[in-house]
From TrEMBL:
Alphabetically ordered keywords of this record: ATP-binding, Nucleotide-binding
Name assigned to this protein: ABC transporter
Stretches assigned to the ABC transporter domain: 4-233
Keyword set includes Protease: no
Species assigned in the record: Sulfitobacter pacificus
Top-rank taxon: Bacteria
InterPro entries attached to this UniProt entry: AAA+_ATPase, ABC_transporter-like_ATP-bd, ABC_transporter-like_CS, P-loop_NTPase
Keyword ATP-binding: yes
Length: 252
């Protein structure tokens, strides 16, 4: 099943064309890493695909009502601001809002989804803590859990692992991979090309206002591509334990 289709998709912000001619589909079971330099348009692509900012062309999600969209896609923005001093469990439960009718209290299935999300993000010990008093990385894990609790077919997350310690970075990427193997799909923007290579089933490179590459990590992270897009040289090897990518030098 296709979870997202973008056709001849483009975004212009303040008269400046940020993205043009984007064509892609996302099927079930994919863990897609969106990579590209600062300012390339990764956030713009995800927000516009969901209809949060204006675009041209077609996005299968942009035309949905907010209610339908909340059941089709969960969104974890780059900004980690938590506005209210509520406990972690209550905050994660907010992820169930799109599944509740106006005024409806959470049901057993909603509490079960919250438990699954807390478990996936290793938040059992923090569930009673006030979310605003957690560390930056802990808050990020709570916000990922809130998005996971939504249990949508598609999850989009903007730099979700930035600021997490190495163990939680790996665990979070593994959770996303698990979701993909369960038939959901996950789109994440990230700057860590090593983790992208290791965990993503597909990488999309944004460069010069469009999709510069789209495919499996070993194809996308060619020496020529990483030089062209990121201005670096890198070591890449496919091993029995999976792909290993290590940036080496700035070459541009
Ligand atoms: N509200 C806005 N008005 C005008 N230009 C904007 C606006 N938001 C983003 N842009 C521009 O669009 C381009 C893409 O920004 P975007 O945030 O999508 O990049 P990104 O790839 O996510 O970058 P980063 O890796 O730094 O997070 C940038 O040049 C940015 O300056």
């Amino acid at each position: 099943m296709t979870l997202l289709t973008l056709k001849d998709f483009g975004v212009t912000r303040r008269k400046r064309e940020v993205l043009r001619d984007v064509n892609m589909t996302v099927d079930q079971g994919e863990l897609i890493g969106i990579i590209g330099a600062n300012g390339a348009g990764k956030t713009t692509l995800m927000r516009a695909a969901m209809g949060l900012i204006d675009s041209t062309g077609h996005s299968s999600l942009a035309g949905l009502s907010p209610y339908a969209r909340g059941r089709a896609v969960a969104w974890m923005p780059q900004s980690r601001e938590i506005a209210w001093p509520v406990d972690v469990e209550t905050l994660v439960r907010l992820g169930r809002t799109p599944h509740l009718a106006a005024g409806q209290r959470p049901q057993a299935e909603d509490f079960a989804a919250v438990e699954r999300a807390l478990l996936r993000m290793d938040l059992g010990a923090l569930r009673g803590r006030t979310a605003t008093r957690l560390s930056g990385g802990e808050q990020a894990r709570v916000l990922i859990a809130r998005a996971l609790a939504q249990e949508t077919p598609l999850l989009m997350a903007d730099e979700p692992i930035a600021g997490l310690d190495p163990a939680h970075q790996i665990a979070t990427m593994r959770s996303f991979a698990d979701l993909a193997s369960e038939g959901h799909s996950v789109i994440v923007s990230l700057h860590d090309l090593g983790l992208a290579a290791r965990h993503c089933t597909r990488l999309i490179v944004i460069d010069k206002g469009g999709l510069a590459a789209d495919g499996p990590p070993q194809e996308v992270l060619s020496a020529a591509r990483v030089r062209e897009t990121f201005g670096i040289s890198a070591y890449f090897k496919t091993t029995a334990e999976g792909p290993i990518f290590q940036p080496l030098e700035v070459v541009a």
